[in-house]
Amino acid sequence: MPPSMEIAVLLLGVLALEMRWSASALHIQQAFASPNLTNNFVVDPVSRKVYLATVNTVYQLNGTLSVEVEKRTGPVEDNLLCHAPQLPQAPCEHPKSLTDNYNKLLKLDREQGVVVVCGSVYQGFCELRRMGNISEIAVEFPPQGEKTVFPSMLNIAANHPNASTVGLIFKSLGGNTRLLVGTTYTGAGTQFFPKNHSKEDLRFENTPEIAIRSLNIKDLSRLFTYDINPSEDNVFKIKQEVKTKNKLNFVHAFIQKTYSYIAFNNDAKMGHKESQPNSILARICLDSDSPRKTTGPESRKLTESYIQMPLQCGSSGNIYNRLLSVYPAEVHAEGGWEPYLFGVFSKADRKAALCAFKFGDIEKEIRQGRRNCSNSPSSDVQVLDSVIQGSGAVCIQKGNLVLQPEQLDCGAAHLQHPLALRRSLKALPLFEYLALSSVSVDTVHNHAVVFLGTSNGRLHKLTLLPNMTLAGHRTMKLPAGEAVHHVMTFDPNNRNFLYVMTSHHMLRVKVAECDQWKSCTDCLGAGDAYCGWCTLENRCTIQNECARGLLPRSWITMGDGPQQCPSITLTPPEISISAKIEAVGILINGSIPDLIGSKVECEYKPGVSTAATVYGPAQIQTCPLLPPENYQPIPPGTDHLSVSVAIKVNGTSVVSGSFIIYDCERTGQIHPKTSCMSCLSIRWKCYWDQENHLCLSSKDDSKPNLLESDASCPILTPSEAPPLPSGMAQDFTMILSNIQERERLECDFGTEPRYEAIWLDNSTVKCSGVTLFTNQRSQIYHLSLRRAGYFSSQREDIFIDSPQPMKVEVYNCGAGSSDCSQCWGREDQGHLCGWCENSCRPRDDCQPIRDVCPAPEIHKISPLRGPVEGGTLLTVQGRNLGRRPGRVKIFVGDVPCVVLPERYTVSVELVCRTGRSAHDRTDSVRVDVDQSGTGTSKESFAYLAPSVKSIYPDKGSRAGGTKVTIHGEHLDIGSQIRVKVNKTEECTITEKTDQMIKCIMPPTLEADTEPVTVCVEFEDHSCQDMELSTTYTYEKNPTISSIHPTKSFLSGGRTITVKGQGFDLVQSVTMHVLEIGQTNCTVLSPSTITCLSPESSQSQETSVQFVLNGVPYTGDSPSSSDDRPEEEDGEPQKEHFQLGYVEDPQFFTANKEKQIKHHSGEPLTLIINQKVPSELELVPEEYSVMIGSYPCNISFHNDQLFHCTINGQLSSSENELPVTVQVGNFRHMITKVQLGGSELAIVVSIVVCCVLLLLCTVALVVYCTKSRRAERYWQKTLLQMEEMESQIREEIRKGFAELQTDMTDLTKELNRSQGIPFLEYKQFVTRTFFPKMCSDYEKSLVQPTYENDSLGPRALPETHPLLQDWQVKANNTTQPNVEEGITLFSTLLNNKHFLITFVHALEQQKDFAVRDRCSLASLLTIALHGKLEYYTSIMKDLLVDLIDASASKNPKLMLRRTESVVEKMLTNWMSICMYSYLKETVGEPFFLLLCAIKQQINKGSIDVLTGKARYTLNEEWLLRENIEAKPQNINVSFQGCGMDSLSVRVMHTDTICQVKEKIIESFYKNLPFSQWPRAEDVDLEWFNSGSNSKLLQDLDNTSVMEDGRKKLNTVFHYQVPEGASLAMSMKDKKEKTLERVKDLDTEKYVHLVLPNDELMETKKSHRHSHRKKVLPEIYLTRLLSTKGTLQKFLDDLFLAILSIPPDRPPLAVKYFFDFLEEQADKRGITDPDTLHIWKTNSLPLRFWVNILKNPQFVFDIDKTDHMDACLSVIAQAFIDACSISDLQLGKDSPTNKLLYAKEIPEYKKRVQCYYKQIKEMPPLSEQEMNAHLAEESRKYRNEFNTNLALTEIYKYAKKYRNQVINALEANPTARRTQLHHKFEQVIALVEDNIYECCSEA
């Protein structure tokens, strides 16, 4: 199935699921859509009219939500700082602007016939509109000409769209109507007040938070006044100074009993503690109750009875602290009917909860609070001092004052102040869910049904049991996912409907859809209290929809339970087909009304029924049965028929059941092997006639011996029979039970023939000579005993009962046993087979029997790779793989593999689980079979260590579906691979290779954004290894806020722009247009997606859903739970979006011409009229007009027409060009442009054509003449080109063949038996520190001396003066002074101030050259080698000085060269610190590379004089001649060496010197090079025939001359044959040794080529014309051949250098790199390139390049000039890899740089990764580094002669004595510590000038 289809199916599934959910709960009966945002609504309980207030409009709707009256209320000219214009003499200086009017209060006063409508404009002004026609003002206020109007009478509601207002209307004691209003304060200092304005008007401060106002329309002068004297007592007003601590946000006001309750939140506390409740319930007593004792006629005061308490929903740690909606309701709880207050509370993470509080508890807390305030003041209650009326009053003890109930409820005369309870009234959540916003409660049949709206457009219905636990939960979606208003109201006339207001809709929702449940049990088990079973209508309904639902037992409720559902019991339940029964008795169970007087029928099938007889109220009745012929016949193969009966009452089926008609005779027939037992064990009564073998339905006196119990049936008792070979005769004995008399029986195996059973006794029979055959491996026969009596001729299937059939297995040894193990392995199944004569036969046919099988053979293993942890299910296929799993053992190398018996197939296949391997390895698989031997696989199984390197992308949405790619190594190994996300979820793998896995991420419900682990699990191993895991971050889901445009034309193709956030996480988008089609979309930016609308067949409104990353987009999915609550989001996220289709636009020219004539070359302008549906809102960019293939420029003038202009010249081969208008996919040709021209143009065209024809004729004649000449020249050139091409093709073919075979050859020939000849540490140090041999004593080391021993001559070990003992070259009298002086000098050097001053002083001298600086640095390193910590600190101080000097110039040049002492000190420090790493990690791959280079060079011809070779990496050393070098082997003995002769491989072009070198290498390969003899010191003799010998030399009297030069003798020159015997011996020391061959003068001697290849070619060209001339550049391909052969070794070396082994991390590198970064930070150097250069100059270029170019520093080997040239190319590649600048290479670039150009980028990444890994290493403290350096010092203690080093340093001190003393005197610290005197004392001691010393001291 293609992905698009999968997505479509998935989307349809989601839509179907949503439809099912909505169907299961509620149903929108009527809906009204508002263009503006809705604010409030109220329902008239009498007229059922609905009054709806929205922004700028109020509506009057009828009961079905159709508009009756509509009235605009805004926008109006207003300013927040202006008084209402209705206030007389209240001018405003502030500018007014059009302001939207948000409705703040909408209340219905039926008695006075008015609707109170308050808006946000005019400072919260209220209007009194007429009930029944809301467009009319019922009472004009203030009246015309009224003078005494105060702002407090006009400023009633909140004057800001986001500020809250609540209210209620009640009648007071005197019959006056009053309005209680609670409103949020919006004055100065709040977020609602205009910024940058001071208090300009007391209006903004004087409006109270809560007030009771007069609403008596007959007394207009007091309308909206506080109606009490003093008025302050009827208002609740927060003091100005504490208003910031009391930001009241009102939720709802309602009346319960004689109290008004106001619920609100104190938003001032919202930011402080999320765990503290901020929700408050306040109560005020209304004076609408019976008269009370008062001292005067005034009404009850608001503040006297005001009391408030906090509400807490949730327990500690999980408190929902913000109230969103409340609803008072009386519900049937466990203790009876009780009023509750239900509330929806939320917290910061959008989660919300439903809580319920008992009003009894509320009243109890209020009474106790007032009692405590009067009698025993406590912290539980206090006077609300934040209110103006609460000033100065406290709760004080009043003695033994007893408060009356009236005083406890509504306050006492002595305490007329508002109170606040401190202790919260607590409740636990009944239900928790996301984004709840509103609540409404109904009580249905003793069940509380709670309706919950959400801020994302859902309506939940909960059914609660009396104990307040959840019994049912249903959900429906509301239109467009709009937020539900916090107030919902039931229809006053029919509580089966609920009025719900969303942000743009008014809905009338039916509370239940009961008719979806089709059965009574489903109906009552649905958990919906509204739904019950209407018994006489046989359907699930609401009670008032059941016609007789009020009658007893007519309507069954959820509380009655499913056990009350009607059912019937029939008597008898089973009837024999032969019985004569006329009627059946029926008992109706369950709840059903009295049926007497009703028409009751029994219906057997549609249209066939009989009249029932009813007996009394017990619901017992009888139904006549139909005649037997009216029933369906019993189906074949069965013995009964089920007949359904439905009870119909007054024509409606009420309940149904069934009875059974059975036939006993059929029972015996359909079970022939168990006919008796089947007959007697069936659930209805049957009898068995054994004599006639019949099952009877009735007992007959004529047959007295009928059996009635199945225990008395004659049966065959089964017995075990061993497997039987095919074709072998066998006897069978059987035991029978319950046999009365013997009768004739036959053994029936289901085949012919049958065998007669012989009776052995009364219960045993025997069948003899039974022979059964099979050509299958095994076949089961069933043995039955056939009754062969007199009735067998009439019926065939008459058997003795065999309840458990007797099975006989027949086997054929020859079938299914292809090898020995398979054959013998059948023994476990009881098959007696044996292997003989190369086939499987019965054992009786095999004589003699040998049960030993051949050794196992393995043909195939899979998989071929697995993890080192084991657990791989390894499948092995082959032959003779054992007979049973217990006798087989499997090993991978020496690692056991456990056989899985359940997956073992004898001999041919077995499966085992691999064990754990200690390390990576590749081994063959071995199978050991007991007594058969061992088999080994040709294929190898590799244990590998997989690793994960990265994941991309490393972030995605929480909804899942992101396709990620995991990169690593060995990821496609083993038998089972899983990718686990956070150790629980699984990433669905779609593709995997060795280096990557592609999978689709699962969704997550976690709200945090912490990275999760993504781990690749192999086999069943849980993920523990960090190498196999990486991290992935789940980010907030993408959100779609809108689409534009929302209309498309029918042809589709219109660009729909999708706006939202987080689209950078989206990889694929599909737009699904419901019932039309889908299109793929494009992500343009993180906030924009574009889609093309699909084509539609008709105009319609449809909805659009998006699929992001394969997951349907749901705007409110729980995975986006970290979003802000929708109340703060503004527009909630949508899931479906509306898209409308309208007719395609129409286009035509102004005059609707079919054709327009146009002269070519003139500008063309077309006027195009259009007819476009206005709702399309097309923009100019969507139009495209083409004239032929020419685009036309469009300019719009109005909505009806536009101009199309072409200024260029139109030309076409056709006369007519179509004019096409395109919008999206809609294309329409409106006319054609006919191109015409003038007669002049035609004449000019003819003349031009004639002239062109003449010119063409002349040109043709000239061309023919020249082409004949060119043809001859071309033929000649072609022959030369073909010859040259043939040569090039041959050369490249050879190069390619060499490239393919070299790696294999090199691996075979590379001999590493000698081990790696590392130099000792002290030799490594001296060679590294003193590479130039800058002293006389170092030059003496160039020529080694030799000594003889049994193994031939050996060079003496190299010694350096710094490694020898120190001897003072002076007389004995001065020696003590010198030693003392040197010791004192050593002490001075250990003084940091002296040493740094000393170094700087020397560096300032012009004659102190670079060579001297390097020497001084190395000598200092030797002298301070025992104190590396001190040496490091000196180096760092000097480096800081160097960095300061470089930073002021160009910091990138620092450390580039070694021009200062500290730079050489750094080189030496790196060498010391990296020696262990070099030896343990890099040494082996480096040595392998050197061996490989030498081996590869020696594989071809090498010119001994020029050094040029056939194989090289360096173009300058390439032998540009096609000189074939044929290899041949010679047998050589080395006299006096004590070894046997060896076979040595040489080339026939080798000189004798080259042959000697190869022989010496063969004999001395296990010794270091310093112990090898030189080729000049040995003689080589060839014994050509018999005892004749010949001394082979490079030059002798047989040498020939060539081109005026003497040619060196080669193997070919002497004609030494293959396998010749040669002898080598040491020369006598007295003999004069010839100079080395490579030092011979190339002007006199030649080997293979002249020094200049081009000169050689020039000279040869005229003499060797027969030789093919080849371009020398052709041989450059050999560079590639050599490079390809060495590539693996080079990669291994670079990997070793640029990797960090976990067991030995390079601490020095980490320490020094951190030092560099610290210095850069201090100097504000932020350029990463500068740091990269510093690191590169300090480690790779300073240390590694030095080692790469000088392997003799590390190994005791011979570094030839040619090897040096190759290493230069490799070192250059390493340098380029460390560079930050990109290589700008072209065809003229040097070949040595081009050679590795392809690899350099990869090496660069490796270098950057290495630097990054070093940076990510844990920081190294000074203590840890000092400990490491101390260990290095201790390791090589006493290796060097430090006194000699000090002596050499002293020479520099003596030379620059005065300059050093001056520097010390100039340094304040040095001067203070008398360092210059100590220095002079040293000089005096060493120079033996004791007097000078004393005098100066």
Question: Which features does this protein show?
Answer:
1897 residues; alpha+beta; nine-stranded mixed β-sheet; eight-stranded mixed β-sheet; 101 strands; 24% helix; extended; disordered N terminus; disordered C terminus
Number of contiguous helices:
35
* DSSP strand count: 101
Strand count, sense and barrel status of the largest sheet are: 9 strands, mixed
The quaternary organization reads as: single chain
Integer average pLDDT: 83
* Helix amount: 10-25%
Report the end-to-end length measured between terminal Cα atoms.
101 Å
Structural class by secondary-structure content = alpha+beta
> Uncertain segments of ≥5 residues (pLDDT<50)?
1-24, 290-299, 1116-1132, 1309-1313, 1334-1358, 1366-1374, 1653-1670, 1889-1897
Radius of gyration: 54 Å
Q: How does the overall form come out from the CA principal axes?
A: extended
Strand content: 25-35%
Notes on the structure:
With 1897 residues, the chain is an alpha+beta fold. The chain is 24% helix and 31% strand. The protein has 35 helices and 101 strands. The strands form 22 sheets. Strands 74, 75, 76, 77, 78, 79, 80, 81 and 82 form a 9-stranded mixed sheet that branches. The chain has an 8-stranded mixed sheet with strand order 48-50-53-52-51-54-55-49, with no helix packed on it. A hairpin with a 4-residue loop joins strand 46 and strand 47 (694-696). Helix 27 (1761-1778) packs across helix 29 (1800-1816). The longest helix is centred in the last third of the chain and has 71 residues, at 1239-1309. The radius of gyration is 54 Å and the shape is extended. The two termini are 101 Å apart. The relative contact order is 0.04. The model is unreliable at 1-24, 290-299, 1116-1132, 1309-1313, 1334-1358, 1366-1374, 1653-1670 and 1889-1897 (pLDDT under 50).
